[in-house]
Amino acid sequence: MPRLEDALGILQRHNDAREKPTMSAVLTAEEQAWTVLQKKQDEEEERRCPSLKSIPRFFERKSPPSEEPTNALREDVLKVARTNLLHRKSSEEILDEEDLHGILALLKDYARKCTPDNSDMEVIDYEGFSKIREELLQKGERFRKCFAPPIFLKFPRTERGCIAILPFFTFVVRKVTMKQTRVELSYYDEKRRGYLREKDMENFIFELIPRLPQLNSLQEEFYPFYVFTAVRKFFFFLDPKRTGRIRIRDLLSSPILLELYELRHEQPLEAAEAASNWFSMQSALKVYGAYLELDVDQNGMLSKSELHRFGSGMLTDVFIDRVFDEIQTYRDAETGEREMDYKAFLDFVLAMENKSSKQAIQHFWKLIDINHEGVLDGFVINYFFRAIVKLLQTKKFDVASVDDVKDEIFDMAKSKTPGIITMDDLIQCRQGGTVLSMLIDAAAFWRYDNRESLMIGTDDDDDSIL
After folding, report:
1. Which residue of 7, 164, 217, 230 is surrounded by the most CB atoms within 10 Å?
2. Is residue 134 part of a domain?
3. Does the pTM of the predicted model rise above 0.70?
């Protein structure tokens, strides 16, 4: 089987004595070669299936993601061709920093002719907008989309028909950044299907680390754990059905990617910003440090008893049992006990920290829906809340009656069907996170039950116990 390097070497030696073609000649040759190949393929398919002569093919089965390519050389050539295509798009269609500076300079030049006397806001009319477009098109077609007439109409106009240049320029920068990101992510789409698998996302994050100033002090030994930590947030929120892939389109429209790109800033994040940003070095080290602290036997995995110490240590035994019943676990070779790995722990942390999110409610639903019937009834609520009562009684706290709590949960969930709560009820009532906390975390329930006294600071001593 010839290697890609050998094939490229043969082609290069063949072309050494030839004059370098122009770009237009290259594009024409590519189009002609594609037409020949397409015609040959169509004729072969029509020979195998004569009906294609009168009925065009409207469906083609895609091979499953796990299927290995049968022609390694062809796959390598396709990868190189795709890389070259993306590089060409990046260099020919995407505006660079010099282009953006040029646009801003032209906007300011033409804005002075249209600025109202009674306003400091710089604006531009459509005539100036068109002149800028004509001037920029002399440098290349890549400017056309930014200065198309519909773009001008997107922005609010003054009485004189002008638009403010600052919002317009911000829009252009955002579009350019989005396009750059789209091309960058496409480099990692090995299957060329518009989505990234977990392996692809890990490669993307790993190669992105050296380009993020906020991670300059991150030790290289921690890179793999940082990658796992970062990738899990993308898959937790953008792949709730656990398909193992995320569409690039969803990545681009997600605020999670913007959160990651905050680490591009040269100026260090404020302490509060770093603490709230999942991708910051401080946050990643904190999560991994918590995992190591819970791992008492230092075997790299967490058992039930070790996970029980999570947070305030007031998660109920019933809930911890359900966690280990539903997630993927690994058996300890010595004890035979089922244990959780770091990736499962990251999902657990993300769910606990974002209980009110739709994705967290979906994650917890399979844990609390013990009958797998898609509903919670009074029996299920009693099942979980009895464990809350038992745990709080060991701390010598008075607890409300089970019936009162059950009625309050049904009131909070605003269930459409009396006597049962669905997952959609929890998501739509906007108090799903509170309901979940009341059923799985004794400390969270105690804080909820004593919320009024805590607001006026009369129970500080009791709160410190939890």
Report:
1. 230
2. yes
3. yes
